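Let's study my pick:
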Amino acid sequence: MSNKKSIRQYFVIAFILSMTIALILRFPMIMGMIFREDDNHHRSDFEVGLSRFFIETAITFLVAFAMFVMNYFILKPTEKHTNLKVKNILISVFLTFALVSFLNHLLFEVSNFLEPIQTGRRHKEEFDITNFFVSVIVIGCTLIIRLIYQKQNYELENEKLRTESLQSQYESLKNQVSPHFLFNSLTAMKTLIRESPDLAGKYVDHLSLVLRYTLQSNEKRLVTLREEMEFTDSYLFLIKMRYDTNLVIEIEIEESKTHLQLPPLTLQTLVENAIKHNEISKRNPLTIFIKTSNADTLIVRNRIQEKLTREDGTGIGLANLSKQYQLLGNRSIQIIQQNNEFIVEVPILKT
């Protein structure tokens, strides 16, 4: 909230509160005029009473609004970053009562001039007490307004810090991609260079595309499904060089959904998770199904083929992906294990 907007809001609130205070304090007066039982000279008395009501309501309003204006400069209710000192409160109380004393004398004379029949010591004392009571209300209201403004500011700052923290977490999560596939790819490339130089050249092209995409993905929160699939094609080329026909990938992606978005490296994470936790051999090949659904989700499914010796995971994988979706707006991924199948379903998002 800008400072000018805060100041404008304060004075609008001060105006409304001043009018409300004036009307509430004079409400019994108007009710007494309306429900007076004595009908003698009722019309003339009502007109006099109505005139008195408007004059005293206006005076009370002016006193209250003047107090709000003065306390704006002393209590600084729209100030967001400084603590309120006891000294300021004492100064506010002293100057408020001093100003009210001056205004009481001045406005009482004005009231007598406008309404000469309403004079006397009793009315003067009542006039003084009312306006002093108004000044107490104004000081209390100003302090409450200051508390509200500071509470709003704290909430805004906390939300800003929370957003920055989430952004930092998100960037950190994106940078936690497992390097295992890179090490394995370099090992496979060494073998290819020795045995099949032509294939090695093609292998290097796909590897460079994978590395470029991985580096560029750190600059993006979302990529289109089309971009992700182009990267996945190269990634799968590298993976299949290790497993040959023992790894089968079945892809069914609707063309109408390729413009939808998802976090970068989502498919790489899901495919790598399936490869890491399942046996892949000539005796027991692994098939991974990748498809889109009518509910705008991407589904990766494979049959569970437990390894004889399990690999120790790093704890990143699916937990990392789940956190990324949460940081994108409380989205969630579905992990289902049923009928000897492992299924992960992730949302694909509209722009």
Summary: Residues 183 and 245 are 21 Å apart (CA to CA). Residues 118-122 have pLDDT under 50 and may be disordered.
